[in-house]
Write a structure and sequence with these properties.
CATH architecture of the largest domain: 3-Layer(aba) Sandwich
Largest sheet: 6 strands, antiparallel
Strand order of the largest sheet: 4-3-6-1-2-5
Helix content: 25-40%
Mean pLDDT: 88
Number of helices: 8
CATH superfamily of the largest domain: Nucleotide-binding domain of ferredoxin-NADP reductase (FNR) module
Number of strands: 19
Low-confidence stretches: 323-342
Number of domains: 3
Strand content: 15-25%
Structural class: alpha/beta
CATH topology of the largest domain: Rossmann fold
Shape: elongated
Bound molecules: flavin-adenine dinucleotide
Length: 427
């Protein structure tokens, strides 16, 4: 066994001491790096919370401002710009004729127009979603001519054709204040799926713009379907969204792509927007789903989302036309509805001289009137525009939702009411 000299011994002790020191230094370094990282992430969390608080405060101020500056009845707006978008579709920028401030709105809300059309005795009421987020000086709506039902000889829609053919820059229109219960809550950061078909893109693009403006961090998927790029309204704006909002995953579906539409470049999927497509892309169904589009599209998507296990409370929708999505009764409930003894409630439409039995299949009095061919004017179908206000001659009604429009005693908003018993309406 080798004998250690005093020098060796000093060297060994030196190495041990230096080694110990190095270990201590490394531990100190790791510890201080760890606490710096911890402090950094605590600061980041604090900043995030502060940002959310600031955003919530700003939204509350906007909301109070919206209430303060909202107007009742109609207000005159000038068409500042009429912008051709794609086939039979125009955007309209509207500025207040009185040049006074205009209220902001929640992304997804709409304006109601009272249109005086040549040759019609009464003005007609039509609603159009705000297609941009709140701007201080103007509103924007985007309107597509409503074509006649396939194979029918009827003329295209009156209101939308009036906008496309007759309304011009400088014209003055009668407009009701922004309204509607279908909107994105910007105070939350809930992961969101926006789904739209055709003209249903208008509230969705407003929602996407609002998320960008709010510098939201939420995860957003945006599924949009149309026939092809020629039918894709606000196309350039839709495509630009992803560069402005890195958390947004855009999926454009063309059912009949044009010859210049390139898969992977102009659109991502050939076919329609379906829940099967979402299942193949989304990591789970834990999202809030916002839908807007043609009636059949909405019905199939809402049914398939329910089958996928998405709770009704996480599905939000706006129907643009007479086809309104009814939250389907659960199968067992459906059975009990049809087997339950049903007390007949007869609805009489006095002016038309018609009557019908209320059936659980009718969602509202407006549906019952439609079903037996009685014409009641309708706009928003949500109790906000007041177009369906009808006098009650006898009987009582029950309101299904809160309503924005006033309904004086003795009248009801047919689009959101059902009868309590036998009922006679002045329609
Ligand atoms: C909340 C809300 C938001 C909306 N947002 C938008 C939007 O952003 N952009 C947009 O473009 N639209 C939007 N709409 C739809 C819009 O309000 C109108 O419903 C749409 O423009 C059609 O109105 P119209 O007057 O052109 O058609 P209407 O004159 O009401 O006609 C409707 C349909 O009936 C057909 N028809 C005509 N005559 C007959 C007849 N004798 N018998 C049977 N059928 C007939 C027409 O061809 C047409 O297909 C929205 C609707 C709501 C409720």
């Amino acid at each position: 066994m080798p004998v250690l000299t005093p020098t060796d011994f000093t060297l060994i002790v030196g190495f041990v001491l230096v080694g110990g020191l190095l270990v201590q230094l490394t531990l100190l370094l790791v510890d201080s790096l760890r606490s710096a990282a911890h402090a950094r992430s605590a600061r980041a969390r604090e900043l995030e919370r502060l940002e959310l608080d600031i955003r919530a405060a700003r939204l509350r101020i906007q909301s109070a401002e919206q209430e303060r500056t909202a107007w009742s009845g109609v207000r005159k707006f000038t068409v500042a710009k009429k912008i051709p978008e794609c086939a039979d579709t125009y955007s309209f920028e509207l500025t207040p004729h009185d040049r006074r401030p205009i209220p902001g709105f929640k992304p997804g809300q709409y304006l109601t127009f009272q249109l005086t059309l040549p040759g019609l005795a009464k003005p007609i009421i039509r609603c159009y979603s705000l297609s941009d987020c709140s701007r201080p000086n103007h509103y924007r709506v985007t309107i597509k001519r409503c074509p006649p039902p396939a194979g029918s000889e009827h003329p295209p829609g009156k209101g939308s054709s009036f906008f496309c053919d007759s309304v011009a820059q400088g014209d003055i229109l009668d407009v009701k204040a922004p309204a509607g219960h279908f909107y994105l809550d910007l105070e939350k950061e809930t992961p969101t799926v926006l789904i739209s078909g055709g003209v249903g893109i208008t509230p969705m693009i407003a929602m996407a713009h609002a998320l960008i403006e709010a510098r939201s961090n939420r995860e957003v998927w945006f599924f949009f379907g149309s026939r092809n790029s020629e039918d894709h309204m606000l196309r350039a704006e839709t495509l630009a969204l992803t560069s402005k909002y890195p958390n947004l995953k855009l999926h454009i579906c063309y059912s009949r792509p044009g010859k210049n539409d390139r898969l992977g470049h102009d659109f991502q999927h050939e076919g329609r927007v379906t829940v099967d497509l979402m299942k193949s892309l989304l990591p789970s169904q834990n999202y809030h789903f916002y839908l807007c589009g043609p009636g059949a599209f909405m019905e199939s998507i809402t049914d398939d989302l329910r089958t996928w296990g998405v709770p009704d409370a996480a599905v939000h929708f706006e129907a643009f036309g007479p086809a309104s999505v009814k939250k389907a009764a659960k199968p067992d409930m459906k059975k009990s509805l049809t087997s339950a003894p049903f007390t007949a409630k007869v609805i009489t439409f006095a002016k038309s001289g018609l009557s019908t039995e209320w059936s659980p299949e009718h969602a509202t009095l407006l549906d019952a009137a439609d079903a037996c061919g009685v014409r009641i004017e309708a706009g928003c179908r949500a109790g906000n525009c007041g177009a369906c206000l009808v006098a009650i001659k006898s009987g009582e009604v029950e309101y299904l939702n809160e309503h924005g429009a006033d309904a004086e005693p003795g009248s009801c908003l047919a689009c959101i009411c059902k009868p309590k018993g036998a009922l006679t309406l002045d329609a």
